[in-house]
Design goal:
Number of strands: 11
Oligomer: single chain
Distance between the termini: 31 Å
CATH topology of the largest domain: Rossmann fold
Mean pLDDT: 96
Order of helices and strands: HEEEEHHHEHEHEEHEHHEE
Bound molecules: S-adenosylmethionine, zinc ion
Low-confidence stretches: none
Number of helices: 9
Radius of gyration: 18 Å
Number of domains: 2
Shape: globular
Strand content: 25-35%
Helix content: 25-40%
CATH architecture of the largest domain: 3-Layer(aba) Sandwich
CATH class of the largest domain: Alpha Beta
């Protein structure tokens, strides 16, 4: 974890409160590899392991829904990237290709070459790494609740020698960032996993700079052909931690959180959307 990442972190339990290094068991150059961060407000300690700060607070650990998310996605991390874009997104959900999504997310988030980007619910970092490659003079941060997903992302970034990307374990509903740090944000296929989206969107609004754009894609209810609509309902039945919104509901949630200039388009059961932080 490089100092630039520590500078933008905040305690997830006391919004906006900075974290400091309490002990640094292992460093590599300027990066903290193993150690502990602490909040000077509430005194909570957060471990840093393999360069990734674990900012998942005990309140999130205690939630059954979050425990299910972690179990499901830790299990899927190994094959996630391959299966998602060869099978699930194109065939099951009727959504766009990975290339199309990458272009959409980068263009619609308005990320500049010196920007500071957030990838919310980043999974194995497929799009986080694309953001980092685009923002060559800037930074990209991927946040996810699944440790295994983050380890894959960090491993791939190391292999690609990306030095402007950072990873954070956290809960999208309790974002651990300082206010107004990100100039752009994305969330691909993540918002349908978040039960209290209004909390996530409020935190997102706080973490983005005024005027920053946010782009994403999510599985929605009531879109696509009848088979796909049924498939969404079946998925909800199988996985109680799956919370797809209806398109109008998502738009309203963004507006309530203070986002403006909403635009969206559907591809199968997937809604691509973009908005600007008002
Ligand atoms: C369908 S995957 C999408 C991953 C990635 N964005 C992509 O498109 O490849 C959904 C991700 O959301 C993460 N997730 C679920 N609930 C979360 C939460 N409350 N906070 C942060 N991440 C969460 C899961 O761990 C998983 O990696
Ligand atoms: Zn605190």
């Amino acid at each position: 974890m490089e100092p630039w990442l520590l500078d933008i972190l905040a305690c997830p339990r006391c919004p906006g409160h900075p974290l400091v290094i309490r002990d640094a068991a292992r460093r590599r150059g300027t990066a903290l590899v193993e150690g502990t961060l602490t909040c000077s407000g509430c005194g909570t300690d957060y471990p840093v392991t393999q360069g990734i700060p674990d900012l998942l607070p005990r309140e999130s650990h205690a939630e059954l829904d979050k425990q299910r998310q972690v179990r499901q996605f830790d299990k899927r991390a190994g094959l996630y990237d391959f299966l998602m874009y060869t099978f699930f997104v194109p065939l099951i959900w009727g959504g766009p290709s990975r290339g199309y999504l990458t272009r959409w997310l980068i263009t619609e988030s308005g990320l500049a070459a010196n920007g500071f980007a957030l990838d919310l619910a980043c999974g194995p970092g497929t799009f986080t790494r694309a953001l980092a490659k685009h923002a060559k003079q800037g930074h990209a941060v991927g946040l996810d609740i699944s440790w295994r997903m983050l380890l894959r992302g960090a491993g791939n970034a190391r292999r690609e020698r990306l030095t402007n990307v950072g990873w954070v374990r956290g809960d999208a509903e309790r974002l651990p960032f300082q206010p107004h740090v990100f100039t752009a944000g994305i969330c691909n296929n993540g918002l349908h996993q978040i039960p209290h989206r209004e909390l996530a969107l409020a935190g997102l609004h706080r973490s983005l700079q005024p005027g920053a754009r946010f782009a994403g894609a999510t599985i929605v209810r009531g879109q696509g052909d009848p088979l796909r609509r049924l498939r969404v309902m079946w998925e909800q039945f199988l996985h109680p931690e799956f919370h797809p919104p209806r398109p109008w509901e998502l738009e309203r949630q963004f507006q309530t959180a203070g986002f403006i200039d909403w635009q969206s388009r559907s591809r199968g059961a997937i809604l691509l959307f973009a908005a600007r932080r008002g």
